[in-house]
Amino acid sequence: MSGTQSHNPLVTSAAKVEASPLAHAFHQFARSRLALFGLALLLLIVCAAIFAPWLTPQNPYDLMQLDILDGMLPPGEASMSQGFIFRLGSDEQGRDIYSAILYGLRISLIVGVISALTAAIVGSVLGLLAAYVGGRTESTIMRLVDLQLSFPTILVALMILATLGKGITNVVLALVIVEWATFARAARGTALVETRREYVEAADCMGLPMRSILFRHLLPNCIPPLIVIVTVQIAKAISLEATLSFLGVGVPVTEPSLGLLIANGYQFMFAGKYWLSVFPGIALLATIASINLVGDRLRDVFNPRGA
Amino acid sequence: MNVQRRTFLGGAGALLAAASLFQGARVLAAERDGTLTIAFASETSSVDPHWHIVTANSSVSQHIFDRLVHLDATQTPVPGLATAWKSVDDNTWEFVLREGVTFHDGAPLTVEDVIFSYERAQNVPGAIFNLRAYLGDKTFEKVDEKTLRVRTQQSNPLVPIELSTTAIISRRIGEGATSADYNSGKAAIGTGPFKFVEYVPGARIVMERHDAYWGAKPEWRKVVIQPIAVGGSRVAALQAGDVDMIDSVPPADIAHLESAAGVALERGVANRMIFLSFDQGRKVSPFVRGKDGSEIPNPFLDLRVRQAINLAIDKKAIAARILEGNGQAAEQLVPPGIFGHNAGIKLVEPDIAKAKALLAEAGLPDGFRVTLHGPNDRFIRDTAVVQAVAQMLTRIGIATEVETMPGTVFYKRASGGGPEDGSEFSFFLIGYGAATGEVSAALRNLVHSFDKSKGFGSNNRLRYSNRELDAMIEKGLGTLDDDARRALFEEVCARAMNDVAVLPLYYPISVWGMKNSLTYAGRTDERTLAFDVTMKA
Amino acid sequence: MIENRNIAMQGDDVAENVRKAFEMNRPPILSIRDLTVSFLNNETWTPVVRDISFDVGRKETVAVVGESGSGKSVTAMSVMRLLPAETSRVQGSIMLDGRSLTQMSDEEIRDIRGNEVAMIFQEASLNPVYTIGFQLVETLVRHRRMMRNAALAESVRLLEKVRIPAARTRLNDYPHQLSGGMRQRVAIAMALACQPKLLIADEPTTALDVTIQAQIIELIKHIQQEDDMSVLFITHDMGVVAEVSDRTVVMYKGDMIEAGPTEQIFHHSSRPYTRALLTSIPQLGSMTGKSEPEPFPVVDHTTGEVTPPDPADRSVVPAPDPMLRVSDLTVRFDIRGGLFGGVTGRVHAVEDVSFDLFRGETLSIVGESGCGKSTTARAIMGLVKPKSGQIRLDGGELGELSAEMKVAMRRKMQMVFQDPFASLNPRMVVGDAIAEPIARFTDLSARGVADRVAELLELVGLAPDMARRFPHQFSGGQRQRICIARALALNPQLIVADEAVSALDASVKAQVVNLLLDLQQRLGLAYLFISHDMAVVERISHRVAVMYLGEIVEIGPREAIFENPQHPYTRTLLSAVPVADPSRRHMNRGLDETEIKSPLRSVDYVPPRLPIREVAPGHFVRQVS
Amino acid sequence: MLVSLLRRLIQATFVLVAMTVIVFLGVNVIGNPVDILISPQADQAERTRLIAEFGLDQPVWIQYFEFVKGALQGDLGTSYVFNEPALKIILQHLPATLELAVAATLMSVAIGIPLGLYAGLRPKSLPTRIIMAGSILGFSLPTFWVGMLLILCFAVYLGWFPSSGRGDTVTVFGIPWSFLTLDGLQHMLLPAFNLALFKTSLILRLTRAGVQEVMPQDYIRLARAKGLSNRRIVAVHVLKNVLIPVVTVVGLEFGSIIAFSVVTEKIFAWPGMGKLIIDSINVLDRPVMVAYLMIIVVLFILINLVVDVLYTILDPRIRLNAGRGR
């Protein structure tokens, strides 16, 4: 045994490289300052949304706290009855825009994240299955995907919401129905590449069950490109939810998301009461832009072809 | 890599060039005998005068077609194609036709044309909205070349007003004409002050002055009406000078338009009322719960509860803060100046303490829980008004949740589908406006008990019922003598308001914006008529 | 057979040397003096090539040879100043025909590129979206200011010069419509457009099959004679160097170890690295006279002393019945198309293949790309579903067994793949990759599994503590060792090695081959060794099967096949292999442009069943149709 | 070529049928147009009579069957609001939307491709950093919010462009176009730019990625070895390889521009199909909703077909085995 070792020195010196691929990936991610800024901004926004009740002087969804006499106050005005300053002004109901933005952020993020993740899970599983099983199942799944993708997202969402009616669950459902196809196609694409690689065939030769090949070998290697697509889809979902709310088919009016805040403020835009739409718009832009920044950098790190 | 730089600059260059196009953007300001450009909030869906009588459509059709009887700014009847009319007996009226009136194509107006118009108006193919409600109870006969006789089943004092709703078209052209023929202009031949030039759906309608018009000659040679749905864009179009006049100025813009240079505002209280309606038909109401969530007997049946609610709502604050000048606090069914308005009814001043006392008296010291429903796309700032009302009721202990929905869904659920085959809701915000321009329609459809067979109380969705008032209303509907009818109706209104049958909130005020060189008398039927727009001296 | 070939060549050499002497005194076309090239990454300049100096005389071929990472390509690229301007720095002088290329302006060097100096690369690198004609005309118009139709006529002439059949019709073909060899010929035609004084060829034949490689080398040598052109030939294959070059430059990790006439470099080089390089490269014919497989001699790069292979008896213990019997194996792939996906063609990948494999024996299957050798291996391993034929392992016919039995039987066979970078799951620690089959199929405790993994790592010459590292932390050779360890995890009796060493550098290749032989010796493994590298096959196999277009054309003991090839295809295959010995150069073998045929057939094609006859004990040859 | 054409048609008819069924069921679930459009004075009897007259009281599948019978003869039903054939109304509004979509696409290509090329060729330069930051912004800006800002800034404050509406049009073979008049162009600039913003960033990033993928290819190295000038290498060798994927995306995105015009048309009061469908949904004008969907499906089939054809023309590798389908 030891014989073979002694006389070929070249063999044992392994090159010194960072440890696990994840640490390696993060190291590369952190090299772009823009991406770090995006990540920091995103974390700030998420924290603001989570701790909204403690950060805001008023709960904009509780009608008890709204006083109509505080309606349409410009930024910096003090509230008549409740004695706090409307840092970013108030809407016609007397709802503090700053609080409404944070609560609205919460809804926008929840809707965006949940719909993107559900679509990701549904889409990826179908995509992986299509790639690995192939044949009849693959063609049916992919026909469905082509069918879905040949339709513009906003129209499909519009039709679903017009028929199902409003409410957050319907919005999420509409977004999932619209988004799963992108994931399915991307997952199938990456999975097809991976299945042809030898380590999957080696696992096959060893007689490992399909379940372990799919989840221990195929899935971990398909994850990186899907992570990129999830981030981009979250940004798209938030933007789409805002658009749907703007068109009046999105979330209910008593719990406005950022999109609805902008829509409500829209009528006052020309009346010089800019703050009703501009500040929620900036918040929405910051959220989507930060997610896109992170997604963009992830794509460079994992550089998948995908959407 | 200079090839990129050139195309890159080239691209930017195109953008700059496009911007320099802007010099010619200004439209010539409207001057006498020139073109008046008006922007409507809602789109005119058809030029067919009998199709879907809605403000945008009827405003346009009044330019092209005349009616036997016209209504002035406060909806009082004035002679139109009929110079005079009188009621011969309880069930018959006679109208005298104006001499020498010609259609735009020169053909003379005949009695046959009038009779044909009333017959066609009741069955326009494909029409959901039709004029049967106004013409159904009448039969028309030609007496002679100049006179028309109208018979009604029972005595009907409103015949002239009801005839003011229907445009007169020529039989020769109107026979078999479809709405499409009107839109293309083929059948759009009327006797009105303006002739049809062009109709591009969704974009504009162009009309030209009809010089041989029998009435006053309008100041404009050409009128262009274009729809701009979004309030802000409409205001921006006026400020940018793209249009000379706009209707439905959004509440938010009233304050800053008043101070804006070169722009003047005209107001008119609309003959419409936005009100709250309570469930007074059922023992237990679907959306009413005790404070602890338990089922309680329907509190709205108790007058004191209704009075408490009336006291809790500060209608002036809603009109001022939410509607910002687009609404006037309402205390009864019709605004001042409309036939049947009872000046004696005073607006109830808000009194939180008295309201709480009344609630306690009615056995509900700490109030109850209710859901207030309403549409979110029908009236000015409807969602804001609903939330304001909820705010005020919550203050006196009635914990009010709010649910608004698109009109399509709201009207269906408000009209039926609830327990005891009544409305799905217990308490909702809704509006009512009568085309006839006087109070009898409101009393007949809102206050009178619901009676499907006789066609009373068709809008009384939450089944308010007061036998005494019903009798008085039916008597009034048959009283030909105006003064007697007015006194009777005023009494009914006072009684209904004391009984808080319904809770009026505000009358919408329609606000027109225009260049400060123009004036326009705001109309209660909210229509915008170019021939009433005049240049200041 | 091989001896008499050398005699025939003797005569031509003499004329060759006379001509060479005459060339010497003309000034060299290219002279490079202490060339140093360094690259910039994150702010530091690291030298990749350090003070290289050599000349290229007129009509002379100079080969620059070295393993990957030796800087040979960088040297070539710096001559034409093709290295990225911002991140590379070239010091030293490069003189072309008396003019300094380093001092030239961009415009001037652009006039020279493609005109006086031309270049061809490993991949034929033609633009996929333009026709062949377009890209040829482009050069002619750019440098020789020709009119379009004159350029077209000239293009046809150039294509004919590089022996492309039916040149005129090829003009409006697209690159993807041509085979690899054909595309490389077009690239050469493009390079010759302006009769360049110097042709730089950067590994032009590495990606080609050995028969096509021979054709291209012949073509380059032929053109060099005709057009009075010097060639700077970059390669890592010593055989090609011996075939092609008059002088050779040996490079190692950026330094120039040695430069001189090829003859002198090959036979009496003074530098240990060169000698180590030469000995570690499998040379065809080095096993003549030996019947059993023998490991490579191991050479220490620094000292140069050679430890001869340890002589052990590697003969196969005869056994009554074979461990693996494959009979009439047929595999076909349908090509679908048309509206409803009807079959429009069929690839006859494997046709009626039969052979036996005994315990402890190595049977190699050789052949060019597309001959079906990997498909045969994958069919045996169950990765591909064969159309017909039996595969009997230890007496059990795999076809009839139940699912679990099949899996149990299958565990007796394991596979090692070609691409070391793709055969290990990048997301899984190496130890887990090896442990997975053990944990799955044996009831060893966690402790037991870990010990087994350590034992396997040591078996393949790796330190047990490497189990916790990820694949990307290992070199190509080490990964291949890990794959072998994984294959041995369940004590298989047969290892199928599909081009297992082709992707490795020469020196590492030798070590892995020695490891395989050592494991065979110790564990009694049988190997089914799939390869296109004849020299490695000669060293490792007991018996050899030669495949062509899906059929076994010749099978028999290695000694018989290599020293007494009967089937014409085997002969061309063996003769095409470049021999790393300049003295035994194949002189003007004649320009041959036969393409490799493709196994794609029409739907109704019925393959002819040609009989096989036994020419010597255990040596069978298929009759030629 | 024929193969993918037929396959697409089969797929499209399936989509068409599925869509009409979904809309029919959906619209009936949420409400009844009669409730919305009926005159306040009409009584209950009138309401039930009207419902019967329009056949809205029939079970859904009978209504659907009636609709299909009509559709086969080209009659997609009459709009409850406009009292004109639904198909005619949509076709009247179609040119406005098409015009806007084409303008937006041209704008996004004219701006996106040059910038993308520049960013790809000069990855480290400052302008590229700005371009890429701008593209992230373009990607993230919600269309409706930007629309508002554009009107506010360019129309109201600066007064450069009209704030809404379509301006005068010139009828060319029966169809009114506004891009032929100066006033029409001025009206179209802001909405087209609003629509184009997202697509410009998309094309920009695609072009940049394309360039970065093509540059290290060996045929580019060979082109440089052939002594071609940088300009020619980019213009000939790089551009065509980069444009193939970009062209297909532009084609596919053209469809989504038409759909997204719903938002822009609402803000800029542009009388296109988008605004029509939103209004129809509000009043449950089902014939118009169904007709709109059918036309969108037909439009999409055409777009996908054109993209297929374009792709095979541009990329020779696809053209040759077109018969084998993709």
Automatic annotation (TrEMBL), chain A:
Signal peptide: none annotated. Keywords: Cell membrane, Membrane, Transmembrane, Transmembrane helix, Transport. PROSITE patterns: ABC_TM1. The keyword Repressor does not apply. The chain crosses the membrane at residues 34-55, 107-132, 218-238, 274-295. One of its GO terms (cellular component) is plasma membrane. GO terms for biological process: transmembrane transport. It is found in: Cell membrane. It is a multi-pass membrane protein. Residues 105-295 form the ABC transmembrane type-1 domain. It holds the Pfam family BPD_transp_1. Belongs to the binding-protein-dependent transport system permease family. This is Peptide/nickel transport system permease protein.
Automatic annotation (TrEMBL), chain B:
Residues 76-452 form the Solute-binding protein family domain. GO terms for cellular component: ATP-binding cassette (ABC) transporter complex; outer membrane-bounded periplasmic space. Its main location: periplasm. One of its GO terms (molecular function) is peptide transmembrane transporter activity. It comes from the Bacteria. Keywords: Signal, Transport. Pfam families: SBP_bac_5. It is found in: Periplasm. InterPro entries: Peptide/Ni-bd, SBP_5, SBP_5_dom, TAT_signal. Residues 1-29 form the signal peptide. GO terms for biological process: peptide transport. Belongs to the bacterial solute-binding protein 5 family. This is Peptide/nickel transport system substrate-binding protein. It comes from Allorhizobium borbori.
TrEMBL record, chain C:
GO terms for cellular component: plasma membrane. Belongs to the ABC transporter superfamily. Glutathione importer (TC 3.A.1.5.11) family. InterPro entries: AAA+_ATPase, ABC_transp_ATP-bind, ABC_transporter-like_ATP-bd, ABC_transporter-like_CS, Oligopep_ABC_C, P-loop_NTPase. PANTHER family: GLUTATHIONE IMPORT ATP-BINDING PROTEIN GSIA (PTHR43776:SF15), TRANSPORT ATP-BINDING PROTEIN (PTHR43776). It comes from the Bacteria. GO terms for biological process: peptide transport; transmembrane transport. Its EC number is 7.4.2.10. Part of the ABC transporter complex GsiABCD involved in glutathione import. Responsible for energy coupling to the transport system. SUPFAM superfamilies: P-loop containing nucleoside triphosphate hydrolases. This is Glutathione import ATP-binding protein GsiA. Its main location: membrane. It holds the Pfam family oligo_HPY. GO terms for molecular function: ATP binding; ATP hydrolysis activity. The complex is composed of two ATP-binding proteins (GsiA), two transmembrane proteins (GsiC and GsiD) and a solute-binding protein (GsiB). It is an enzyme of class 7 (translocase). Signal peptide: none annotated. Residues 32-278, 324-574 form the ABC transporter domain.
From TrEMBL, chain D:
The chain crosses the membrane at residues 12-31, 100-121, 133-157, 177-198, 242-263, 289-314. Its main location: membrane. One of its GO terms (cellular component) is plasma membrane. It is found in: Cell membrane. Residues 94-311 form the ABC transmembrane type-1 domain. Keywords: Cell membrane, Membrane, Transmembrane, Transmembrane helix, Transport. It is a multi-pass membrane protein. This is Peptide/nickel transport system permease protein. One of its GO terms (biological process) is transmembrane transport. It comes from Allorhizobium borbori. Belongs to the binding-protein-dependent transport system permease family. CDD domains: TM_PBP2. It holds the Pfam family BPD_transp_1_N. InterPro entries: BPD_transp_1_N (IPR045621), MetI-like (IPR000515), MetI-like_sf (IPR035906).
